[in-house]
């Protein structure tokens, strides 16, 4: 058995000793988007610092616990707080909880994030369903020996975000009269926000939004054949003419304001998965 699998087995055994049920839906909450857990019938919460081999969240706006509960008839495990490469973790540590989720029974993954708008038609507070990503400006978590128990050496990436989930989410949003955009998320390492020239470059590359998370998580989920739905809250507009300084405080504030719309869509989507 591979070393990674041994570690995961230890982590899963610990989690199972606190919460025995399998969770079929996994959710990762982005910066300032922690209130989704209020929608769950919460059954157990486990702090990251208690879990063997788990990193701990160091970023403001990320709580740092796994929350287990139910939503309708779905068993859901939520990462209230995620890990970013810029926190100093290895890219393997960043994606470790996603790999653990697979072994907790997760069959569908829903990811949220706060992102900078690069599409010139976007405004702060918009919701963007991610329909593709650009991974070239961040670090690929599959670099290194391929762990064949998890997936193939060269995973196909033609549909990293499951089309069926995107269609469902769009129909749900339309029914709720919530406007949603759709577009390409460009993953970067951070922690610096982008320079004006970098925003322009990402726009030219085909990105509609940019952020410092999500892409590595999606890559390992796809590697393990877990279908993904992901959504961004546009918390700032990177591509702009006027003088404007971007701060994490503003990101958290914008995420908080748009969170109820995103939560409503994600909640209904999970019920319909
Ligand atoms: C910057 O304000 C932080 O917000 C976003 C960026 O990636 C960065 O971590 O966080 P999430 O992607 O975790 O939502």
From TrEMBL:
GO terms for molecular function: purine-nucleoside phosphorylase activity. Pathway: Purine metabolism; purine nucleoside salvage. CDD domains: PNP-EcPNPII_like (cd09009). Keywords: Glycosyltransferase, Phosphoprotein, Transferase. One of its GO terms (biological process) is nucleoside metabolic process. Belongs to the PNP/MTAP phosphorylase family. The purine nucleoside phosphorylases catalyze the phosphorolytic breakdown of the N-glycosidic bond in the beta-(deoxy)ribonucleoside molecules, with the formation of the corresponding free purine bases and pentose-1-phosphate. This is Purine nucleoside phosphorylase.
């Amino acid at each position: 058995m591979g070393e990674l699998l041994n570690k995961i087995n230890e982590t899963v055994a610990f989690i199972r000793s606190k919460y025995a049920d399998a969770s079929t839906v996994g959710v990762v909450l982005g910066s300032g988007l922690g209130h989704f857990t209020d929608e769950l019938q919460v059954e157990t919460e486990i702090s990251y610092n208690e879990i063997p081999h788990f990193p701990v969240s160091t970023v403001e706006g990320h709580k740092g616990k796994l929350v287990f509960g139910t939503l309708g008839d779905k068993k859901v495990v939520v990462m209230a707080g995620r890990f970013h490469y810029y926190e100093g973790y290895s890219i393997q540590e960043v994606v470790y909880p996603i790999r653990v989720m697979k072994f907790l029974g997760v069959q569908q993954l829903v990811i949220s994030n706060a992102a900078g708008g690069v599409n010139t038609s976007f405004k702060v507070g918009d919701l963007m369903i991610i329909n593709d990503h650009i991974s070239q400006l961040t670090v690929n978590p599959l670099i290194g020996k391929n762990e064949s128990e998890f997936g193939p050496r060269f995973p196909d990436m033609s549909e990293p975000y499951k089309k069926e989930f995107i269609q469902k989410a769009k129909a749900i949003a339309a029914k709720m009269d919530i406007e949603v955009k759709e577009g390409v998320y460009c993953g970067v390492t951070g922690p610096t926000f982008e320079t004006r020239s970098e925003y322009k470059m990402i726009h030219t590359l085909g990105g509609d939004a940019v952020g410092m998370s999500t892409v590595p998580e999606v890559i390992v989920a796809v590697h393990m054949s877990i279908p993904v739905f992901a959504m961004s809250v546009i918390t700032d507009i990177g591509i702009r003419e006027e003088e404007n300084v971007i701060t994490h405080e503003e990101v958290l504030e914008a995420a908080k304001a748009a969170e109820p719309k995103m939560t409503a869509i994600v909640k209904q989507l999970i019920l319909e998965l």
